[in-house]
Amino acid sequence: MDERKGRLTKDGIRIYQDADYAGMQAAGKLAATILDDIAPHVFVGQTTGEIDRIITQMVDDAGARSATIGYKGYQHASCISMNHVVCHGIPSEKKLKDGDILNIDVTVIVDGWFGDTSRMYVAGKLSRKSERLIQVTHDALFKGIEAVKPGNTFGDIGHAIQTYVEAHRMSVVRDFCGHGLGRVFHAPPNVLHYGRAGTGPILEEGMFFTIEPMVNLGRPETKVLADDWTAVTRDKSLSAQFEHSVGVTADGVEIFTQSPSGKFHPTYGE
Ligand code: MF3
Ligand code: CO
Ligand code: CO
Fold this sequence. Notes:
The chain is an alpha+beta fold. It is 24% helix and 24% strand. One cobalt (II) ion binds at residues 105, 107, 116, 118, 243.
């Protein structure tokens, strides 16, 4: 066996072994399938609480576990973040209105492996400005993913995302970041969605982490509401997010949470 694998780097980043990719593939596939299957349940008049209950059932039916139920006291199988909510929105009994945009974020545990992914949905008709925000955020995630290969750095990922977003005159949230994951939910490193090329830890085969940029139409500042979870934009501008769990391979990247039916982007694959 290759003794370089299974170790921690000097930055505390775990280097997983070849056999571990299969665990991440299974967890990632379930999380992505749930996000595919929830799409028809997002409509005007629906509540995010009901969406979350359906997700809870889907996780259960798959014989898996939710990573978020019980996590630091969180009680739901998903975070659902609407309009100016940046992330960690708590499902509620408020009804969706025409034009609401929402991020649904699901993390499941399958045989001890964590699959973490989120994407955007719309209730009713998508406005032009929301459509632009969603498109730029989606494409920014893929700019980050394209920077993932051995020898590049985490700063290269952040730089690719920030450059792309700011070229479209939108802003990248600094207060939340991606994270290492694998047999744990949140592990080193912090995967920043901004930064300087060539800085930060060097990417190596066997690293597993999320990339999950949050992009605002207005300023990047956020605040957390009194419920201690819900993060919103300070200026009330709209915010969007997409998240994939990925692994560094010998020559690039593997996306563990790829949509089995090609529905990752809300207006593609319909
Ligand atoms: N899935 C989120 C992430 O991308 C974490 C949610 S933690 C919760 O890291 F407790 F808010 F659900
Ligand atoms: Co995550
Ligand atoms: Co997530």
